[in-house]
Specification:
Elements: E1 8-12, H1 17-27, E2 32-39, H2 46-61, H3 63-66, E3 69-76, H4 78-83, H5 109-123, E4 128-130, H6 146-160, E5 165-167, H7 175-197, E6 209-210, E7 213-214, H8 220-235
């Protein structure tokens, strides 16, 4: 892939499978790529460790792309997590609430992330935000939908007085297709990196290993990742 007209991008980077794939995607398209992460009061610190491991491993595995990788920034918005309680920010059963939404839904999380990220992007003269939101294989979060992200992109552009585009390369992909995209971007090396270093499990388990990575294997995030892996491997003929 060749670099696009906008030469820089800021990736919302959690260290999970989706954001790792988005980072590889951005590094294949933009001349300069920076990352931003958030302490939002999440129960498990493991993802903050995983995001650094993914960045370092990706830079080591792909030195040509590493030249494009700029600084990382972590923002503490833990006070927001105290307000937007969910099973990801406090001890609670993972399931569905009375309104039909998953108890892992953190109200407005992606909207908050994009708003905070846009402030850094504007200061750094970066016109593109990249996020791993997806409305195909996902947990039913309303702030992952394409309509929501398009509206937020428009609001940020109006509020900042400059264009702020939000790219969501995974929006219409299944988890199997996300694995396939990672392979297309970096072959087995990138897939192995994502398996070994990224973290998705809602319960914070980064010790129990599977073909598809580490996790409890039973939470919705693990089940979705495992299902996508199995479908991709079956389609890949192995």
């Amino acid at each position: 892939m060749t670099a696009c007209a906008d030469t820089s991008a800021l990736v919302l980077f959690s260290g999970g499978q989706d954001s790792a794939t988005c980072l590889a995607w951005a590094l294949s398209r933009f001349d300069r790529v920076e990352t931003i992460g958030f302490h939002y009061g999440q129960r498990h610190h493991v993802e903050m460790t995983a995001r650094l491991a993914v960045r370092e491993a990706m830079a080591e595995a792909f030195p040509a792309r590493a030249e494009r990788l700029g600084p990382d920034r972590v923002v503490d918005i833990s006070g927001y997590g105290d307000l937007a309680e969910s099973a990801l920010t406090r001890e609670a059963e993972i399931g569905f609430s009375e309104d039909g939404l998953p108890t892992t839904f953190v109200p407005g999380r992606n909207l908050v992330f994009l708003t905070v990220a846009s402030a850094l992007a504007a200061r750094r003269a970066i016109p593109v935000l990249v996020g791993g939101m997806c409305q195909t294989d996902y947990s039913g979060y309303p702030d992952c939908r394409e309509e929501t992200i398009a509206a937020q992109s428009r609001a940020l552009t109006l509020g900042l007085g400059r264009e702020m585009r939000v790219e969501t390369p995974l929006m219409h992909l299944t988890k199997a297709e996300t694995w396939a995209l990672a392979h297309a971007l970096g072959g087995d090396r990138l897939v192995d990196l994502i398996v070994e270093q990224s973290h998705t499990c809602y319960l914070g388990d980064h010790e129990t290993g599977h073909d598809w990575g580490y996790g409890c294997g039973t939470c919705p995030a693990c089940e979705l990742r495992a299902k996508g892996w199995a479908e991709w491997r079956a389609g890949a003929g192995s």
